[in-house]
Amino acid sequence: MKHTLVALLRDQPGVLNRSVSLFRRRGFNIESLTVGHTETAGISRMTLVIDGDTTSVEQVIKQLYKLIDVLKVSDVTQDPNVTRDLLLVKVYAPPAKRSELMQLADIFGAKIVDVVPDAMMIELSGSPEQLDRFVDLIRPFGIREMVRTGCLAMTRGASTISGPYQTQEFRAA
Amino acid sequence: MKTLTGAQMMCEALIAEGVDVMFGYPGGAIMPFYHALPEYPQLRHILVRHEQAAGHAAEGYARTSGKVGVCVATSGPGATNLVTAIADAMMDSVPIVAITGQVVTSLIGKDGFQETDVTGITQPITKHNYLVTDVRDLPRVFKEAFHIARTGRPGPVLIDIAKDTQNARGVFEYPETIDLPGYKPNYDGNRRQIKEAANLLNQAKKPLIMAGHGILLGHASTELREFAEKTGIPVITTLLGISCIPEDHPLSLGMPGMHGWVHVNRAIQECDVLFTIGARFDDRVTGKLDSFARNAKIIHVDIDPAEVGKNVVTAVPIVGDAKRVLEHLTEIANPNDHSEWVNHIREVQATRSKRQRDPESGMFTPHHVYAEFTRIMQGEFRVCTDVGQHQMWAAQLIEYMKPHTHITSGGLGTMGFALPAAMGVQVACPNEEVWAIAGDGGFQMNLQELATVVQESLPLKICIINNGYLGMVRQWQELFHERRYSATPMWSPDFIKLADAYGIPGVRVERAEDVAEAIHQARATNGPFLIEFVVEREVNVYPMVAPGASISDMFEDPSEVEIEDVVAVK
């Protein structure tokens, strides 16, 4: 089973390297990893997707916690959550194929972000499964280049995982 | 406001952390620090002959004193020479702070002379590390480094400081508080879990305590003994747990594992509750995991949450400090008596230990040396061992009575550890008798430190157990590799002449009857002394569990097939 973990990290030199190196040396199998800024300056947020059948999720969490600059790790798999992946794809699109591609993009709520005589760049954000389905559909047109960001996740509802580490302005009154 | 150079700040910070001695070796990138050092006569610096020895000496110091050991090296090769010792400290949870110089900031990343990315190299083998390129960060970094090294599960921390940062000036204000929101070790242990552990132990018919390095690191020897005595539960001690309970204590059974005693391994297999504290179920202890302690519910107390549940399934996990958990547990556990169970284990022990300790073959074996050593020393010693056969015999055959008297490289298994580590032990305990025991192989890995011993007037007693082989590898070749002695026969120099070249007196012993006199002579010598014991060449360490086998399947001498525990080696 796939697990989605969210980790908060202090922005210190090497913190990403420490995390990734930890996964390598402990033999953890990480399917997707994204890192970005959060609402609080000095704190980054990492989203990880792990195959729980081949890697002990508990060990990943515990070993991450051993890193001094890791503030919090949370397994959000069982919580109601929103997971999103961002896709940019450049498809072979001669004039005759354009409208068909645009229809497909429209169905998925994707945006056409660039068009040239024989190619088109499409942007789509959605759950990883949605993106997989879209990619499968457009594959026959000829994918020339593709990139995905990996998963971002946030739990639904008003509570946050970053509570104690937020600056005052973001804390609930 | 007082302004200081970065180098002066380093010295001030060391003093603020209670450091009075460090082991090091100067070089280009750390020269500003060495320039400042004479201004601080309260900081003793011991010049080693190789940076690896500085690391092991800092470990020996820390393993004995409980204080943070400090080692210093320059950038590049100086820093990489520390790597083995840092890895050793990481595996055995030893609190050391390694300080390295780094090339000037403008050269970092440009392959400058003697540049190496030591924070990158040591990242997986340090608890944490720092590269400092701004003098304003120095006080905070030192404060955090010592805090991280000594608290929670102790471990090595490295601070790499650019040369220009050591020369830069800044205001020195040593912080009083630490702001590490991601680092909060748990000391107390969950009270409900401790209660559950107490219940399990109260009901157990055949409970067993397995005590590890955590007892010594947590200074919990007294608490361990009180707990064992109140509950009547026998105690086994892992290689690094040795000396945490006096070995002549009626409840002390000895060492488990690959070269542990048959009765101890059998006790593990028979017990119904295994209370493990400050030990991490290393493969050398457990043997084949799925047959380890198969009748037991396991209670695991460790200060590192990641160790709990890592290797074995745990019925009651407790994350906390050994001392505090034991205090609480002793309070709430029922007084009990398990003498029937202890006697049962002792019966197994009685059938075997005599042969192990007193070979009647007429050969001169290491067993004679260790037996005489134990008889003469009466528990008044500290022993540092190296790695290999002599190390296992020292663990099996010497009797340790006081905490922190057995110092060895366990997790990493670092040959060359004994001599430099013993220097650190001697510095920590200047008035005690410190013995470095090594094989002929391990001794030659760091024998350059004899010069340090002399220069610093350390009255170390050095034993070389010389069998002319890399003995443990040879034993495995004999047992598992068709007796093909590939690269294990070893020529050695005349160790007595070698010692003499350093001005160290020594004696060679080739007969069992001369052992005692040599030990007496060493003790009577005011200063360092070296004894070379030239022992029987092909003696094996027994009993033994073959690598990957179950600890139920121990064998002693393969020729002694009548012993029920013997299994044919595949």
UniProtKB/TrEMBL annotation, chain B:
SUPFAM superfamilies in UniProt: DHS-like NAD/FAD-binding domain, Thiamin diphosphate-binding fold (THDP-binding)
InterPro entries linked to this entry: Acetolactate_synth_lsu (IPR012846), AHAS_TPP (IPR039368), DHS-like_NAD/FAD-binding_dom (IPR029035), THDP-binding (IPR029061), Thiamin_PyroP_enz_cen_dom (IPR012000), Thiamin_PyroP_enz_TPP-bd_dom (IPR012001), TPP-bd_CS (IPR000399), TPP_enz (IPR045229)
User: Reaction(s) catalyzed by this protein?
Assistant: 2 pyruvate + H(+) = (2S)-2-acetolactate + CO2
* Enzyme category, top tier: transferase
Domain Thiamine pyrophosphate enzyme N-terminal TPP-binding positions: 5-119
Report the GO terms under cellular component. Answer: acetolactate synthase complex
**Top-level taxon of the source organism:** Bacteria
From the Swiss-Prot or TrEMBL record, give the protein name.
Answer: Acetolactate synthase
